[in-house]
């Protein structure tokens, strides 16, 4: 493995988000979401498991509450009892802890820090002396540790703690949190590797890979880099590894017996990662692995790893991603299906998968400054990922469809996963804390630094200080307004480049002014670079906020003759509460004209699109025939109102559709 690449002298010291849009969300996380989730995982509130189609009811036979912290207390010897919940139940605590860590950095809170410190103490007591920690195996299956890696989620769970431990250490300086993470990594190093006395395998659910890279970055210890390299390169070397373990442990010991027959493609372990050409299997597994892969490739410079990450990226973004950024088309295994298969009414689009795509895009962007990576981050944070949380912060989507009819969700078994309402919690509660940790860490998604270039790839108002006394203040009101002003203070006259992304939705029309002078730029790769030398530089970026009609590739059967509507980064949808009757009866004119208006009192403040260039089928009476010969439906002109996709299902229950007939 190549030595790590050198790092730049430029670095970020502090980011303060000032955007009205994101400040509301981050304040919501600090004041409502993190406390609510703590009460839930502590079983201190009345929140119970919702109608989660994928809940293992046997795991909750003693009641439909989380029990996540209680499991850790039992493993620590603080409480007595039996394990309740999924075999990855511990991760609900770990991702909450990570979100809380980010929150404490921008919203210090003594009570929250006392709670997080106490949780770290419990985790430390639950961890075994050798570094192992997975409460279900410590409490219920002590003889089966690392013996059924395909479904055990042991490495997945420890990976999520490592991420949380690193984040908490960085936020608070809590040394114990980092020590737990390092003991876990040492446990894995003692048990996994190519040596004869070690397991020549890997986890069924990737996560440890991206977690170890974070541990490497905070400690600089090369053994974590080497362990990541082992897990990524060993995956798929023996495609029968999981089957051999399952047979040795007993096929009847499976956590999910149905998954025994699904094949190792599902676990992205059918071949070595450097031979993979597309995205397949469980969507979150695939994208988490790709995130660790891209991070490792960036740090080591290994070209075969870079090429593998790029192939996975290209297949997802160009052939398997929904217009909102959602990925994973089918409820069967929460998985990818095949290229250009993008059904709208049965779309799975797990919130965790959209969060994972944000992680993946960030690592790809850090390795290679291209606008397409920032475009996907923007797509996720304003659409696919953000829709996973209700505006109240206490209800969540696991599944994010692009078309919903409540009657079908209720009565069609094929659509039982498509819910018209967000839920208070889930049996598999990975999504609530995942979207929370993304929002709480949004300040980490505004800038990337490479060599002597600072890249501002998101138009989110902020005030940020860098090394060498550099300060950048961005004033912008995206997603509603397309003008962004950057004031760059450079008291030491450092020579560096400042880059901004020109989003794909504005690449044909934009204007950039530097110190009141319009500059002529081509925006290659969606990026404009401005050399900075003086003490003060003012840059204005004006993006085109016209409303766009989006057409799918002709290979996408589900969207033939339909269009989606996007303004700026926001994908819009129609809700029945604004558009009476059945949404499939509405039709846009060929070249519709839209009016935009920001409505402060609607849905916590949203930009609304309306058009009169639409028609609607005049509803047939119940007495008319089911089918009619040679008589087209009667249509009449009508108004159509659209709201941002992320904000749907926050009012009266009803139909919703992103794609519209045209």
SSE order and pairing:
Elements: E1 12-17, H1 20-41, H2 68-76, H3 90-106, H4 110-126, H5 135-139, H6 149-152, H7 154-172, H8 175-191, H9 208-219, H10 222-234, H11 241-249, H12 283-300, H13 303-319, H14 351-367, H15 371-384, E2 403-404, H16 406-411, H17 430-440, E3 447-450, E4 453-456, E5 462-466, E6 471-476, E7 483-489, E8 496-501, E9 510-514, E10 517-518, E11 527-532, E12 536-543, E13 547-550, E14 562-567, E15 570-575, E16 586-588, E17 595-599, E18 606-617, E19 635-644, E20 656-657, E21 660-661
Parallel strand pairs: 4-8
Antiparallel strand pairs: 1-5, 2-20, 3-4, 5-6, 6-7, 7-12, 8-11, 9-10, 9-12, 13-14, 14-15, 14-21, 15-19, 15-20, 16-18, 17-18, 18-19
Task: Provide a descriptive summary of the structure in words.
The chain has 662 residues and is of the alpha+beta class. 34% of the residues lie in helices and 17% in strands. The chain has helices at residues 20-41, 68-76, 90-106, 110-126, 135-139, 149-152, 154-172, 175-191, 208-219, 222-234, 241-249, 283-300, 303-319, 351-367, 371-384, 406-411, 430-440; strands at residues 12-17, 403-404, 447-450, 453-456, 462-466, 471-476, 483-489, 496-501, 510-514, 517-518, 527-532, 536-543, 547-550, 562-567, 570-575, 586-588, 595-599, 606-617, 635-644, 656-657, 660-661. The strands form three sheets. Strands 2, 13, 14, 15, 16, 17, 18, 19, 20 and 21 form a ten-stranded antiparallel β-sheet that branches. It has a seven-stranded antiparallel β-sheet with strand order 1-5-6-7-12-9-10, with no helix packed on it. β14 and β15 (570-575) form a beta hairpin. α9 (208-219) runs antiparallel to α10 (222-234).
């Amino acid at each position: 493995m190549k030595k790590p690449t050198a790092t730049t002298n430029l670095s970020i010291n502090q980011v303060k988000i000032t955007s009205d849009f994101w400040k509301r969300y981050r304040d919501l996380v600090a004041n409502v979401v993190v406390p609510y989730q703590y009460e839930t995982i502590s079983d201190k509130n009345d929140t119970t498991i919702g109608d989660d189609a994928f809940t293992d009811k046997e795991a909750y036979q003693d009641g439909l509450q989380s029990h996540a912290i209680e499991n850790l207390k039992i493993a620590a010897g603080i409480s007595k009892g039996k394990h309740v919940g999924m075999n990855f139940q511990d991760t609900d605590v770990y991702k909450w802890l990570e979100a809380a860590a980010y929150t404490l950095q921008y919203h210090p809170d003594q009570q929250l820090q006392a709670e997080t410190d106490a949780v770290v103490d419990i985790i430390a007591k639950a961890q075994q002396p050798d570094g192992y920690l997975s409460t279900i195996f410590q409490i219920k299956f002590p003889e089966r540790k690392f013996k059924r890696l395909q479904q055990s989620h042991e490495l997945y769970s420890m990976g999520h703690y490592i991420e949380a431990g690193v984040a908490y250490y960085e936020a608070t300086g809590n040394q114990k949190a980092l020590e737990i993470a390092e003991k876990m990594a040492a446990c894995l190093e003692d048990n996994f590797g190519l040596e004869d006395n070690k397991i020549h395998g890997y986890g069924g659910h990737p996560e440890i890979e991206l977690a170890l890279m974070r541990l490497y970055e905070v400690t600089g210890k090369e053994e974590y880099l080497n362990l990541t390299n082992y897990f990524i390169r060993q995956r798929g070397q023996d495609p029968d590894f999981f089957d051999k373990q399952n047979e040795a442990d007993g096929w009847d010991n499976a956590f999910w017996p149905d998954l025994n027959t699904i094949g190792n493609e599902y676990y992205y372990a059918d071949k070595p990662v450097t031979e993979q050409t597309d995205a397949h299997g469980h969507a979150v597994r695939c994208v988490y692995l790709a995130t660790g892969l891209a991070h490792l490739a960036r740090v080591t410079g290994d070209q075969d790893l870079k090429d593998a990450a790029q192939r996975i990226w290209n297949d997802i973004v160009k052939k398997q991603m929904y217009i909102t950024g959602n990925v994973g088309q089918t409820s069967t295994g929460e998985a990818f299906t095949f290229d250009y298969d993008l059904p709208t009414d049965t779309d799975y689009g797990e919130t965790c998968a959209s969060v994972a795509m944000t992680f993946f895009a960030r690592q790809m962007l850090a390795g290679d400054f291209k606008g397409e990576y920032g475009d996907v981050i923007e797509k996720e944070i304003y659409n696919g990922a953000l829709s996973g949380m209700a505006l109240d912060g206490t209800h969540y989507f696991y599944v994010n469809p692009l078309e919903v009819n409540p009657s079908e969700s209720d009565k069609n078994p094929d659509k039982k996963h498509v819910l018209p309402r967000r839920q208070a919690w889930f049996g598999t509660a990975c999504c609530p804390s995942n979207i929370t940790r993304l929002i709480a860490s949004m300040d980490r998604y505004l800038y990337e630094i490479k060599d002597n270039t600072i890249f501002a790839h998101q138009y989110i108002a902020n005030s940020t200080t860098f090394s060498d006394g550099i300060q950048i203040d961005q004033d912008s009101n995206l997603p509603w307004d397309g003008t962004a002003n950057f004031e760059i203070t450079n008291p030491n006259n450092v020579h560096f480049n400042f880059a901004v992304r020109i989003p794909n939705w504005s690449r044909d029309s934009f204007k950039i002014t530097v110190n009141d002078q319009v500059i002529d730029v081509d925006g290659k790769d969606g990026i404009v670079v401005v050399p900075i030398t003086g003490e003060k530089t003012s840059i204005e970026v004006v993006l085109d906020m016209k409303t766009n009609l989006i057409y799918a590739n002709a290979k996408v059967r589900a969207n033939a003759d339909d269009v989606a509507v996007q303004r700026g980064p926001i994908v819009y949808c129609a809700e029945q509460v604004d558009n009476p009757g059945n949404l499939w009866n509405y039709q846009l004119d060929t070249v519709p004209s839209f009016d935009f208006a920001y409505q402060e009192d609607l849905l916590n403040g949203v930009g609304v699109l309306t058009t009169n260039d639409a028609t609607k089928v005049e509803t047939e009476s119940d007495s008319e025939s089911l089918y009619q010969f040679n008589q087209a439906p009667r249509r009449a002109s009508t108004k159509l109102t659209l709201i941002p996709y992320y904000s749907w299902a926050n009012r009266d229950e009803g139909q919703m559709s992103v794609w519209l007939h045209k």
